[in-house]
Amino acid sequence: MALFNEAEHEVELACETTEEEVVAPSKRRGKRNPLPADSPRIEVIHELPEHELTCTCGCRKHAIGEEISEQLEIVPMQIRVIKHVRKVYGCRDCETAPVTADKPAQVIEKSMASPSVLAMLLTTKYVDGLPLHRFEKVLGRHGIDIPRQTLARWVIECGAHLQPLLNLMRDSLLASRVIHCDETRVQVLKEPDREPSSQSWMWVQTGGPPDKPVILFDYSTSRAQEVPTRLLDGYHLAKRTTHHEAGGVYGALTMQQP
């Protein structure tokens, strides 16, 4: 499917589905899912024009009911600036040093990024798959000039702050009865002391309880045995199981277990 004709493709599929339903009348068309009940509602009242409120008999019409339909609306991203005003107090009767009100603690000190900006940055990159250079353009359309290098630095610094959460996730993973492991080739174009054509690996581990699954990614330039040895440090294979492809690195790791 081409990139730019996705809409036409989906419409064609819908038409084909409709035709199939006509041929087989026993298959009823599914109902449209209702909009979330917890979403804010804005009620718009539509009244008859004044000249239609008078009946042909001359009497004034009165409301006897109403028809309700709902339409989804999306409010475009709003950008605003939080201006921190720190009051400074001093004594006029003596020469004690002035006292300035404290500023709230920030995720990244001396940065213009508020927690909401950082949350959106991480969500768009890692959940929505939006590269930093595209998020840079999104901000640019709103008149905000933040280079992707700055965005990248914010991502790295957020990663350092989230390390305690990562540690808890790893503990949950290592407590699993079964861990699924896989490694996938990736190519990094700009990496110190490495050619752009060099091969790297993204190691993925999944586990945890069914209601709270854990998925961890770990980047490495190697596919050697020491990588899964490090990732599975503290995991006792004698009592548990790893599911993986038939790779020698995992087999050698199993042989090391007592």
TrEMBL record:
Q: Region Disordered: what ranges?
A: 16-38
User: One Pfam family for this entry, by name?
Assistant: DDE_Tnp_IS66
Recorded hits in InterPro entries, A to Z, give: Transposase-related (IPR052344), Transposase_IS66_central (IPR004291), Znf_dom_IS66 (IPR024474)
Q: Which domain of life is it from?
A: Bacteria
Q: Where is the Transposase IS66 central domain?
A: 110-236
Per UniProt, residues of the Transposase IS66 zinc-finger binding domain are 53-95
Query: PANTHER family from the entry?
Result: BLL1576 PROTEIN (PTHR33678), PTHR33678:SF2
Query: What is the official name of this protein in its record?
Result: ISPsy5, transposase
Q: In the record, what lineage is assigned to the organism producing the protein?
A: Bacteria, Pseudomonadati, Pseudomonadota, Gammaproteobacteria, Pseudomonadales
